[in-house]
Amino acid sequence: MPSFHREFSLSDALLTPVLSRLESIKDDHLGLSLLDADLIRDLVLKGKCLEIHLVYPYPCQTRIPAIEQALNAALTSLTEIDAVKCHIDFEFTVQSSPVKAPIENVKQVIAVASGKGGVGKSTTAVNLALALAAEGAKVGLLDADIYGPSIPIMLGIPHFKPVSPDGKVMIPAKVHGIVAQSIGFIIDGEQAAVWRGPMAAGALVQLINETQWPELDYMVIDLPPGTGDIQLTLSQKVPLNGVVIVTTPQDIALADAQKGINMFQKVNVPVLGIVENMSFHLCSQCGHQEHPFGRDGGQKMATRYGLPLLGQLPLILTIREDMDKGLPSVVATPHNDIAQLYLAIARQVGAELALTKAQPSVSISMSDE
Ligand SMILES: Nc1ncnc2c1ncn2[C@@H]1O[C@H](COP(=O)(O)OP(=O)(O)OP(=O)(O)O)[C@@H](O)[C@H]1O
């Protein structure tokens, strides 16, 4: 992100102290000061009230009160200012690939992947999508986990069937403030189980292109686990702006997650960071913590690859219960600690995308044989 200073229409005598205070406030997700991150677009003094227009490149609706509080605390110590009023907008970049056709109406595509099965990839994808929406973005969720689509149940719509008014494109489900499409809405699991990788990948690309997505800031794709043909073909054919890797701290899961990181890096899909799921067991009765899958494996892997650790989720009964009820934690209990962890992950994912430059895509030759 460029370091960028704009012209503001405050008097010189006031501008200097205002800018120095804004310089001292850091945006935690971008890792830059409000000025260097170019978040401040306008400063207007009306009487003794400083009106500040901020434009964020990632969704952070739930943080607005804290942002306003920080600005008030920093600026009202100046004698010329006794109040600060913020106008906050979001502006998400459209990052396009030079070689891959964009998905119509979709600004950014985020894949959620794991090397190993059962580590909580779908749970993370669903809560990430809902958290991005809670933070103010328009979000679509695509369940591409062709051999085990679980998102219909996790969203509480196991029997949804998409309609197609024109026989060409399908209308996705609208649920909990996002739109969702799943291979599980259309075919049964046994049918998909016999598809080989290239055929399954072809079906997924068709599903993406034959869904009538409304305007979306982010599309979250829940990939099948592993690093095989499906993940490779989707990386090649779908304009992925970044991938989130989900792992547990267990050695065997970490080894497979590393294969995933290597694969996505090879095909120039930026790895946005690592979510360590089931980091520790949190007893819902007494709050006691233990580490059944080992400790800090995700953190160590993030450090080794120079990637952000986006968050660490406990192994806790309520996450599984919420999912089984079709009410993921972000919507079931939006104010509790688990939802706050997912919201922080969503903001960081949005910020990482904003910091990521579009990567040139490489061509991988794939064959059906
Ligand atoms: N942090 C957690 N605490 C408790 N239960 C969890 C947690 N994360 C996931 N689960 C539960 O673990 C099970 C597997 O999760 P999930 O389906 O998300 O894994 P996955 O990696 O997508 O699996 P698959 O390989 O089948 O795609 C689900 O029952 C889910 O509710």
TrEMBL record:
<keyword id="KW-0547">Nucleotide-binding</keyword>
<dbReference type="InterPro" id="IPR027417">
    <property type="entry name" value="P-loop_NTPase"/>
</dbReference>
<feature type="domain" description="MIP18 family-like">
    <location>
        <begin position="18"/>
        <end position="84"/>
    </location>
</feature>
<comment type="function">
    <text>Binds and transfers iron-sulfur (Fe-S) clusters to target apoproteins. Can hydrolyze ATP.</text>
</comment>
<dbReference type="InterPro" id="IPR002744">
    <property type="entry name" value="MIP18-like"/>
</dbReference>
<keyword id="KW-0479">Metal-binding</keyword>
<dbReference type="InterPro" id="IPR033756">
    <property type="entry name" value="YlxH/NBP35"/>
</dbReference>
<comment type="similarity">
    <text>In the N-terminal section; belongs to the MIP18 family.</text>
</comment>
<dbReference type="InterPro" id="IPR019591">
    <property type="entry name" value="Mrp/NBP35_ATP-bd"/>
</dbReference>
<keyword id="KW-0378">Hydrolase</keyword>
<comment type="subunit">
    <text>Homodimer.</text>
</comment>
<dbReference type="InterPro" id="IPR034904">
    <property type="entry name" value="FSCA_dom_sf"/>
</dbReference>
<comment type="similarity">
    <text>Belongs to the Mrp/NBP35 ATP-binding proteins family.</text>
</comment>
<dbReference type="InterPro" id="IPR000808">
    <property type="entry name" value="Mrp-like_CS"/>
</dbReference>
<keyword id="KW-0408">Iron</keyword>
<keyword id="KW-0067">ATP-binding</keyword>
<dbReference type="InterPro" id="IPR044304">
    <property type="entry name" value="NUBPL-like"/>
</dbReference>
<dbReference type="Pfam" id="PF10609">
    <property type="entry name" value="ParA"/>
</dbReference>
<feature type="binding site">
    <location>
        <begin position="115"/>
        <end position="122"/>
    </location>
    <ligand>
        <name>ATP</name>
    </ligand>
</feature>
<keyword id="KW-0411">Iron-sulfur</keyword>
<protein>
    <recommendedName>
        <fullName>Iron-sulfur cluster carrier protein</fullName>
    </recommendedName>
</protein>
<dbReference type="Pfam" id="PF01883">
    <property type="entry name" value="FeS_assembly_P"/>
</dbReference>
